[in-house]
Amino acid sequence: MERSHPAVHPVAVPPQFDNQPPPNLRMKDLPGSPGTLGGLALRVGQFGFAIIAFGVMVAMTDFSTVTAFCYLVAAMVLQCLWSISLAMIDLYALLTRRSLRNSLLVGIFVVGDGVTSTLTLAAACATAGITVFIDNDLGKCGPSHCAKYEAAAAMAFLSWVLIQLSFLFSFYLLATR
Amino acid sequence: MERSHPAVHPVAVPPQFDNQPPPNLRMKDLPGSPGTLGGLALRVGQFGFAIIAFGVMVAMTDFSTVTAFCYLVAAMVLQCLWSISLAMIDLYALLTRRSLRNSLLVGIFVVGDGVTSTLTLAAACATAGITVFIDNDLGKCGPSHCAKYEAAAAMAFLSWVLIQLSFLFSFYLLATR
């Protein structure tokens, strides 16, 4: 009886990169993404600037006479609530060493950050526009009134810069998941 | 003389997926990304809304008395120039069937779209805020004046929606390249 000899050809095996993390985990170390220390710092910064803007605004007794100033106060309340909620989620993830790379969760972060950042920028720009209008164009600014409104607009703008960074990190995380 | 027989072990070879496109080409068909018909339509829409906002604004003789209205005109000029330039690049890419998936090129699109969309939203919000301030809070709006300013702000806002979409598509393309 003839025995068949199976032909065995050596083939080139692609390297397995056992020492490197798989590519879908590379975002984990990106500082600023949700669930990292950088992400928590961004949230705390957003909350801090937003609460300063809110405080400066409500300290002015006549802010409610201008629609856009009331809108800034409302936007800052929303910004504070959103940022402190996300800061708590980040803190929980850091303490329990959990990952926030769930698609649904990151999708909610992206939508929430996008909406909040748009509202904050809109409120900051409307406030800044009206302050410049009253101060430069009408010349009817009370003593140190406009400086305080400008300070509130600047704080809201700084808060927007930080939430925009959070939005970009979350969106990047969602795109590369 | 003893001849050495090299030991050959058959190994499992990972499948090559010859029939599937490589993952870095999956974005090519996403409508709205640079170099596609959807991307071109977004650019034309941005340009159209921006030029209408510009036209409505400069048709008002007294727009230059308000700083924010001058800023809206400047922002709309920048928006028109950026959108028409990108529309031409998209058209060139479509006609010559070239891909715009070059990292440097998409990076420039992302930065340009981000800056232009921020300036456009800021100008639209400042204009809207001042119009509401003059109309509702001061009650000093000339006949059909505020309606035209509101129309310009609305057109600028629609232009922002479209450029924001372009920005998100370009950023997604950059993140998944």
TrEMBL record, chains A, B:
<protein>
    <recommendedName>
        <fullName>CASP-like protein</fullName>
    </recommendedName>
</protein>
<feature type="transmembrane region" description="Helical">
    <location>
        <begin position="66"/>
        <end position="92"/>
    </location>
</feature>
<dbReference type="InterPro" id="IPR006702">
    <property type="entry name" value="CASP_dom"/>
</dbReference>
<keyword id="KW-0812">Transmembrane</keyword>
<keyword id="KW-1133">Transmembrane helix</keyword>
<feature type="transmembrane region" description="Helical">
    <location>
        <begin position="104"/>
        <end position="134"/>
    </location>
</feature>
<comment type="similarity">
    <text>Belongs to the Casparian strip membrane proteins (CASP) family.</text>
</comment>
<keyword id="KW-0472">Membrane</keyword>
<feature type="region of interest" description="Disordered">
    <location>
        <begin position="1"/>
        <end position="23"/>
    </location>
</feature>
<dbReference type="GO" id="GO:0005886">
    <property type="term" value="C:plasma membrane"/>
</dbReference>
<dbReference type="Pfam" id="PF04535">
    <property type="entry name" value="CASP_dom"/>
</dbReference>
<feature type="transmembrane region" description="Helical">
    <location>
        <begin position="154"/>
        <end position="175"/>
    </location>
</feature>
<feature type="domain" description="Casparian strip membrane protein">
    <location>
        <begin position="33"/>
        <end position="162"/>
    </location>
</feature>
<keyword id="KW-1003">Cell membrane</keyword>
<comment type="subunit">
    <text>Homodimer and heterodimers.</text>
</comment>
<dbReference type="InterPro" id="IPR045009">
    <property type="entry name" value="CASPL-5"/>
</dbReference>
<feature type="transmembrane region" description="Helical">
    <location>
        <begin position="40"/>
        <end position="60"/>
    </location>
</feature>
